[in-house]
Each structure stands twice: as C-alpha cells, then as structure tokens.
Specification:
Length: 195
C-alpha cells in the first residue's frame, strides 16, 4: 500500500484552484504523493519537460507509475475509480449528476474565464483595468447559477451532509473569488444558512 501510494506525483502550483481540487481529493483519500511545484508566474508550465506531460501547459498533472493524467476532472475520476476509499461521489444517481453539474460549472464555466492565460490576454489586448471586472463578472454569473442549482439539495456541504466532488471544486473557487478577485460571496449563502 505504502509503496503504491508513493508512486503518485502531483505537478501543482500553490495558488492554482484546479490543483487544489486534486490536493483535497488526495488528502481525503489518504494518499501520499510527491508534490512537484510548477511556478506559473515564472512560466514553468511552458517548459518542454512539462509540456511533454501536458501539451496544453496547465496544472494539475498526476503521474501514477506509468500513467500520466492532466485535467482535474479526469484526474478526479481516475482517483475515484482507482482508489475507492473515502468515496467522493454519491451512489444516488441524481445526487451524482448534481455533483457533476456543479463541478462542471466551476471547471468549464467559471475557472477558464479567469485563468492566468485569459487574464494576461485581456491585460494586453484590452487594458490591465479590465482584468478584475472581467473575472468578477464570470465568477458572479457562475455562483448565481450554482446557488439556484444547489439551494434545495445543500446540507452542511454542497449536496448534503457529506463532502463530495462538488465541494472539492467549489471550495478553491470560493477562495480564489474572495482572495484574488475581491468577489463578495455574501449573496450566495445556501451553505452557511443551513449549516
Ligand atoms: N481544465 C483544466 C484547467 C487547468 C488550468 O487552467 N490550470 C491553470 C491553473 S488553475 C493553469 O495551469 N494556468 C496556467 C496558464 O494559464 O498559463 C483542469 O481542470 O485541470
């Protein structure tokens, strides 16, 4: 077991919300892993060595022995199947679909619009002043939708009283929204009101 766990390597950046989803999953599943930092601000994601692992040049990347997987959604699904301890998907089909939907709102409809590469582009092509309003606008739109989606299902956590996939995607996005983009999360209170 210990031998199997040690072969896991995670290429990650401390501030990356996508990597954070996977760090939470690995920790909840009790899996030891080697943390390999990729400094996105120094452009280490563009190095030929890293791009061999993930040609699009994004973290996270998980290496499990001979298997290399990038993209947090794919990594999450892989971990869930290979390491079933502490399941992070509910068995109830509707609740499972809700978890996929909430996770996908974060990873397809929020995070890509506030990713470093997009913000750099806006800074260069529009103006540095447009960066934060752009990110806030898309984060807020996503959370408006998440609030409506989850309000009748949330318990202590997003889809009930257990931590599931949705929470792993939501928590780092909430953190990024507040800390990096100054988003006011107060309007979206589904979880704290029920806790
Ligand atoms: N869909 C991918 C997105 C990965 C992604 O956007 N990662 C960001 C950090 S959260 C990144 O590496 N950005 C580097 C860049 O924009 O150059 C996933 O969920 O893993």
């Amino acid at each position: 077991m210990a031998h199997e766990e040690k072969k896991l390597k995670l290429y990650s950046y401390w501030r990356s919300s996508c990597s954070c989803r996977i760090r939470i999953a690995l920790n909840l599943k009790g899996l030891e892993y080697q943390y390999i930092p990729v400094n996105l601000l120094k452009g280490e994601q563009f190095s030929p060595e890293f791009q061999k692992l993930n040609p699009i040049g994004y973290v996270p990347v998980l290496v499990d022995g001979d298997i290399v997987i990038s993209d947090s959604f794919a990594i999450f699904m892989y971990l869930e199947e290979k390491y079933p301890q502490h399941p992070l998907l509910p068995s109830d089909l509707q609740k499972k679909a809700l978890n996929f939907q909430a996770a996908n709102i974060v990873c397809s409809s929020i995070q890509p619009l506030q990713n470093l590469a997009v913000l750099k582009y806006i800074e260069e092509k529009a103006s540095p002043d447009e960066k934060i309003p752009w990110a806030k606008r898309h984060i807020e739109k996503g959370f408006e939708a998440l609030e409506k989606l989850l309000k009748d299902h949330a318990g202590i956590y997003a889809t009930g009283d257990e931590v599931f996939m949705a929470d792993l995607f939501l928590a780092p996005q909430v953190h990024a929204g507040i800390k990096r983009f100054n988003v006011d999360m107060v309007p979206w209170q589904t979880h704290p009101q029920k806790a």
